Amino acid sequence: MEVITDQSGISFSPANDLLKRSEEVKTRTYPFKFGEYIRSGFRLFFDHPGEFVLYFILMSLLSIVGAATTIGPLIISGPLAVGWFILAHHMENGKPFQISDFFKGFRSTMPLVLVTLLTLLAVTGGFLLFILPGIYLAVALAFSVYPVYFTPIGNH
To answer: Please, what sign has the CA dihedral across residues 16, 137, 53, 82?
Structure first.
């Protein structure tokens, strides 16, 4: 049986422990410290503003180029969004990083494209049913690409 260690160092067997872990997640309380999260985000940005601004410019240019085709945004949006969080994750954990870390999301292009496509279809379906289900699904699925990359199974 395969044993996986997640990023917190907890080992588990996916087949046997998934249900147990999902129950623990549902019953555990999680403190929500909005002000602390905002301060932490600003601190990350102001510690490395050049890298974030450069990435924003590169991401904007790639998005403009990708928008020239119908499928371009679908292909590049997930990996570019994940790249943003890869760099922030390195910074937050004191790991060395380089601007190329922004593009590591492209290592998982196909899974990210599939999740982005499924999210787009779900949100579109929600809007077709009525506006509120579309808004709900858009918010609920807004971060759906991140678990695709940041899973213990992938270990990128």
So the answer is: positive
* DSSP letters for 60-109: HHHHHHHTTSSSHHHHHHHHHHHHHHHHHHHHHTT----GGGGGGGGGGH
Q: In terms of Cα–Cα distance, which of 12, 142, 25 is closest to 85? A: 142
Tens-digit pLDDT profile for residues 70-86:
787 778 888 888 888 88
User: Is residue 46 included in any domain, yes or no?
Assistant: yes
pTM, full prediction:
0.59
pLDDT at residue 51 in the model: 81
Show the tokens assigned to 8.
């917190």
Domain range for residue 75?
Answer: 33-149
Question: What is the total count of domains within the chain?
Answer: 1
